[in-house]
What does this fold into?
Amino acid sequence: MQGEYLLYTRRKADLPSYPCRMENGEFLFCLQGEVQLYINQQKYALTAGSVILVFPGQILFYADAADELELAVFAFSSQFRHEIFYSLPSDKVSFLREHNYSSFQGEEWDGIRNHYLWLLQQKSADDGNVYQRELVIYCCRMLFYEICNRSERLYRQTKSNHLRWRLKDRFIALVIESFREERSVDYYADKLCVTTRHLSKTIQQTVGCTAKEWIDDYVILELKVTLHSTALSIQEIANQFNFPDQSYLGRYFKHHTGMSPTAYRAMK
It folds into this structure.
């Protein structure tokens, strides 16, 4: 992407066929059709009226896209992200990183599509406006608050379980930070000051898999991205991920995917 931001349409034929790490951030608006979107393993079902915010550095994977899929995409650079979020409450930004999806219907969706998205399209194309950049930033901030509002309303409806979801969010953030060095549930339970049993039960209840499965699945996701996006040798990748050696990495990868790292890379 050239420049700080770009608004365009993404269809089924444009979707990557393998997991990829985002260099830029994106607002995604599903205009029609449907698709399964995975962000750092979290699954979202996008249909008409879905709006989702993707942060730079997150890993995306699309699956089961409908032929008629049409997404409006507002992509923005890491630097422009700071401009969007500058002066916004840091707790809101942190909250939205984990609760970044909203689904609108009826008049609400008409308002999002025909007001916010339309305004963003107009100002993104208004190159003659000396305040174009500032206007685009404020359009993004309005969208940010609309998604935040919807997400927080849904979050409060289940606030009786808020401690459980907060623990889940902290666990996922910690794994993303430390997965190269630590892959044991005991380590994360200790860091989160809970028992291994409590952590595993909480992750099972909130995510639908065990804590160990989530850790291993995320490591595999990162390995897939590394295999596709770099020319590092398998041994170099093993070193980067702190595996004892190349053979151990190969066995680990094959156990979870059914193929060797070399075979997966050849699918590129």
Observations:
- The mean pLDDT is 90.
